[in-house]
Amino acid sequence: MSRAGGGGVADIVPLREAIRVWVRVAALSFGGPAGQIAVMHRILVDEKRWIGEHRFLHALNYCMLLPGPEAHQLAIYIGWLLNRTLGGVIAGVLFVLPGFLSILALSYVYVLFGNVTFIEGMFFGLKCAVLAVVLQAVFRIGGRALKNRVMMAIAAAAFVAIFFLHIPFPIIIIATGVIGYLGGRAGLAAFQAGGGHKAGSGKILEDGDSVLGADVPVHARANLAWSMKISGVLAALWFLPVIAILLALGPANVFAKIGVFFSQMAVVTFGGAYAVLAYVAQEAVQHFGWLQPGEMLDGLGMAETTPGPLIMVAQFVGFLAGYRDAGTINPLMAATLAAVLTTWVTFLPSFLWIFLGAPFIERMRGNAALGGAMSAITAAVVGVILNLAIWFGLHVLFAEVRSISWGAWSMDAPVIGSVVWPSLALTALAALAIFRFRMSVIATLLLSAGLGIAWTLLMS
């Protein structure tokens, strides 16, 4: 039997043509995971007819069960199906590269020219628009995930746990995943997996009519030896640099903290980009003190307006952490190295998850227990994103925030008299553009940035 990923098996499509298509996908990958998945579906299924509808959705469902950015993992998975291991690597790298370069350039602008009135105004406008975008995510994901009272209760419990009790995000996800797994295994109707992202409408492309076909390609057949070999290489590429940094610089060094924290994030962040952002914001701002809440919003604004996964905001977080704790290194050099390290440990695990598990994906088809776990996790994520929206809102709309506690419960509350009226007005306009006029995220962000610049110049 030919090995999965073996060199003696022909590509499904010519590699050169596949590379051109993945460059195009990467350049058009705006709008968060839903938009990125829609772009891949339109190009790979509808236009190129390389992969059928059912196989596309089956791959997506597997990626949604994994920690990390599902759109990035889906690109790796399909690239691997079409062009073996090299195809998966190329698809995954190209999917991230435009966003990495864009965020890096904007990060330089941010630290070098951030106090310029024009730049200040742009990021002021982006913060307000990002708050509206996160609110939209609460409604969009909630509408899909909260399909019964059990899911609503899970979402409410997750919100209480993270907002009032400050229980860490990974614990919430693990707990709800276990509950969903047990509920799905028991066959309870409330935990039956629902649909994920909507891929498209109209007549679907059957797997048998696609270039890939309905059968499992020879290189994609389960082969434990190949999976363990490639996984061992990827695990070494992931862990060895982090271990080397820990041994050379010590655990208190900022590079060691970045390597360990974002490696942990890659393992525990289920539930999509906004759930990841809630975890990163909680730790990077409140625990490590690498940046301020407003700066986290600035980074998210960068990620929203550049191609690639939204979790590219992690690169901005690492950049600022390295810049502000450079030690004896030039701050810009330290920031650049920190951005590279953050990106490496954030996205390399996606290749590991896909190459380790994708050859065995057929065995997971229709697994009720795993579907139940995914449904429960997605419901919990709604509560986590609501917490993120409130946290962002407090720091965007109010100049002062104070902590209120009683017993084991505590919460941040605004000082009502400190409301920032320009931020409130611009956030309301952004929300009106998204919810009432159905403007795209990119258009809303650009409009808000322009209004923010105009207001700042007017007041200067």
Automatic annotation (TrEMBL):
Give GO cellular component annotations, separated by semicolons: plasma membrane
GO function term, MF aspect, one: chromate transmembrane transporter activity
Where in or outside the cell it occurs: the entry states: Cell membrane
Xref: InterPro entries: Chr_Tranpt_l_chain (IPR014047), Chromate_transpt (IPR003370)
Pfam families for the chain: Chromate_transp
Keywords attached to this Swiss-Prot or TrEMBL record, sorted alphabetically, are: Cell membrane, Membrane, Transmembrane, Transmembrane helix
- Membrane-related topology note: Multi-pass membrane protein
Similarity section? Belongs to the chromate ion transporter (CHR) (TC 2.A.51) family.
Name of the featured protein: Chromate transporter
Provenance organism = Paramesorhizobium deserti
